[in-house]
Specification:
By secondary structure, the chain is an all-beta fold. The protein contains one helix and 42 strands. It starts with a helix and ends with a strand.
Length: about 675
């Protein structure tokens, strides 16, 4: 039976009304969330530190790490398997080659930089320095060591942690932390050397930033996606009220290119990265920064989030997503599931393929060696439902869901209890599937194990239940319950109203359970949601939450920052929810990715689609925008500007976007 006529009319009427001034509407959450996939976790080096990854123009992944000198490895299958390590910079006598960074230039040259650090007893013939090596044949051979900078020969006056950036002009920059200028104090600044011949020779350093009596350190630069600003993330221990390092950005317009005064402690060009100020005692050092093909930015650091100690040897890696100006970072996740007996230090993030984030961390215990692990994460800003009709039999296997293996949303990496979710729709139903690891399924309590699905069909973005909001609970005892939001006239708050079973008996629900996991599939008629047809082209919001009953407590697995509570759903923080394809101009049989790419020679590719292309932009694999233009048709050509591989991002006229990897024969 469909929802009662009276309730359907009420819901439909309310959906046409603007929520009044009494509503607690908030701006919609405006950032991607990263979902880490434990199935991709892999140890890259059995020992080592400071791993850094890039994707080469030929599609391979390349990692450099500090491991008895500087070693590199490669993967041709997206990180599933790796070549044996190759030593490209051995340790001289009484010197450790440390902290590599790597970059492939637009012309294909690969640069690997590193930091010679002498051991004591110190002598003037062995200085702390910055060096690099070049490869012009995709890593097959490497040049001799190239000098960039030397500091003094003692630890307190050294230099540290190189990181590279290529500007659109071809200028190559090497940023590093520099104590050489402060022989009588413990201060440190960020310096930068320039090369105008692809890293063969380097100029004298210029000062980028300096906070008096403090230690700016560990710089990592990016160019903002619009190409207008150079942003460098650093660790800064000089913020008032802070006793440790805080992840901070300093910046300058690309036209200025650090020819003005250095960014000091009081400059408006210096800011903490966080959208919401962290609590007192928060630590966020050793940061790293990269750009997503969406234009958003992703930052990592080692810190004490969710830790009971500020001891650096107990810190874990944290990752957040920022806006296109590398500001207002939020959506904190921790890629590596490790107890407080372990740490993840000297971490980094890479962006590969069409936006996959790879976290790399040095995992170990205090006073012991570290191994280097990687794990992949998938940024999602919106939940998407493709057009399709699955068989509702309790398992996603055998059907084509929106994402491969129905892995659109992945939860549970923090406690190794993997949960995955996906969606489809057709003219009659919204389809939902979940697969959850659970080795102790509880079905005889009032708070049984199961999965919540929340929908805000009106994009109300409120903190209370409102008209057009729905909550479904798929109980592992095989039953479904439903609630709908209802405004309270004259009050700021709304409330959840439990629906009678007759209101939603058109919902189909099938469940399969084993001793270690369960799967479910559901089909929700659009009529149950008060709609006469599928709301194609309409922005909605959605959230999922897993309830897991333990012996003495109830645990929940949630999407980061969704903040869904029992009485206050906070739908403003739910993920955007869109129906894709269907009757909105795309044939129902087309795949989710409708973009076609063809190479037509001379560094030019042709893009075509059944859909109208609004804009197209080309990025290098490390996030630098190479070119962009408006289109307004169903096909166009794009020049690759000398790069052999990168990411092309198409924004369609309907506002949706698609990113694809391109590789050209060299």
């Amino acid at each position: 039976m469909k929802i009662s006529t009276k309730k359907a009319l009420l819901i439909g009427l309310c959906s046409l009304l603007t929520i009044g001034a009494s509503a607690a509407r908030k701006d919609a959450y405006d950032r991607s969330r990263i979902f880490w996939d434990t199935d991709t976790k892999k140890t890259l080096f059995s020992s080592g530190n400071y791993a850094r990854m890039i994707q080469l123009q030929d599609g391979r992944l390349m990692v450099a790490a500090e491991n008895g000198g500087i070693k590199v490895i490669y993967s041709s299958d997206g990180g599933k398997s790796w070549t044996p390590s190759e030593l490209i910079a051995s340790n001289p006598a009484n010197v450790a080659e440390c902290v590599p960074d790597l970059l492939q230039l637009a012309d294909g040259t690969i640069i690997v930089g590193y930091n010679p650090r002498p051991h004591s007893p110190y002598s003037e013939d062995r200085r702390f320095g910055i060096r690099c090596r070049r490869s012009t044949d995709n890593g097959a051979t490497w040049s001799d060591e190239i000098f960039i900078f030397d500091a003094r020969h003692i630890f307190n006056d050294g230099c540290w942690e190189p990181s590279f950036l290529e500007l659109p002009s071809g200028e190559l920059q090497c940023y590093f932390a520099n104590e050489n200028d402060f022989t009588t104090t413990g201060e440190q600044c960020i310096s930068m050397c320039r090369s105008f011949d692809k890293g063969l020779t380097w100029g004298a350093p210029v000062r980028v930033c300096y906070r008096q009596w403090s230690r700016d350190g560990m710089p990592v630069p990016i160019l903002t996606p619009d190409g207008k600003e150079i942003v460098v993330i650093i660790e800064d221990n000089g913020w008032p009220g802070s006793s440790g390092f805080i992840a901070t950005t300093v910046r300058c317009p690309i036209e200025e290119n650090w020819t003005g005064v250095p960014v000091d402690g009081g400059s408006t060009r210096r800011s903490k990265i966080f959208a919401v100020a962290p609590p007192a005692g928060h630590a966020a050092g050793a940061p790293y920064l990269r750009v997503l093909p969406s234009g958003e930015t992703v930052a990592s650091y080692q810190g004490n989030d969710n830790r009971s100690t500020t001891d650096m040897e107990r810190m874990n890696m944290s990752v957040l997503v920022g806006d296109e100006q590398a500001r207002n970072f939020k959506g904190l996740t921790q890629p590596f599931n490790i107890s407080e007996e372990y740490h993840s230090l000297w971490n980094s993030v890479a962006v590969v393929d069409t936006g996959t984030v790879v976290a790399l961390g040095s995992i170990g215990q205090p006073n012991s060696g570290n191994r280097i692990d990687m794990i992949k994460g998938y940024p999602r800003k919106n939940i998407i439902a493709n057009y399709g009709t699955p068989v509702i039999d309790g398992t996603a296997a055998g059907d084509t869901w929106t994402y491969p293996k129905a892995y659109q949303i992945i939860l549970g990496h923090e406690n190794n209890t993997r949960r995955t979710f996906d969606f489809l729709y057709d003219s009659e139903y919204l389809y939902f599937t979940a697969r959850c690891i659970d080795r102790d399924i509880t079905t005889d309590k009032t708070d049984n194990d199961g999965v919540f699905l929340y929908l805000d069909t009106e994009n109300a973005c409120d903190v209370y239940p409102r008209n057009g909001m729905f909550q479904f609970f798929f109980d592992l005892n095989g039953t479904v319950t439903m609630k709908h939001g209802e405004d309270l006239e004259g009050y700021e708050a709304g409330k959840w109203i439990a629906n009678d079973a007759a209101d939603f008996d058109g919902v189909k629900f099938e469940l399969k359970k084993s001793t270690v996991y369960y799967e479910l599939e559901a089909a929700i008629p659009w009529s149950v949601l008060g709609m006469g047809k599928a709301p194609e082209g309409k922005l909605m919001r959605a959230d999922v939450k897993v309830r897991n009953r333990r012996a003495s407590t109830v645990e929940y697995a949630t999407i980061v920052d969704t903040e869904t509570a029992t009485s206050k759903p906070n739908s403003w923080a739910w993920m955007g929810f869109l129906l894709r394809n269907g009757d909105s101009g795309v044939a129902k049989t087309t795949a989710a990715k409708s973009l076609r790419i063809a190479t037509i020679g001379n560094g030019v590719v042709k893009l075509s689609s059944e859909r109208t292309i609004g804009e197209v932009a080309l990025y290098t694999f490390d996030g630098r925008m190479v070119s962009g233009k408006r289109v307004g048709g169903t096909e166009c050509t794009v020049g690759t500007e000398g790069i052999a591989g990168g990411i092309v991002r198409v924004t369609y006229a309907d506002g949706t976007s698609e990113s694809r990897k391109i590789l050209l024969p060299r």
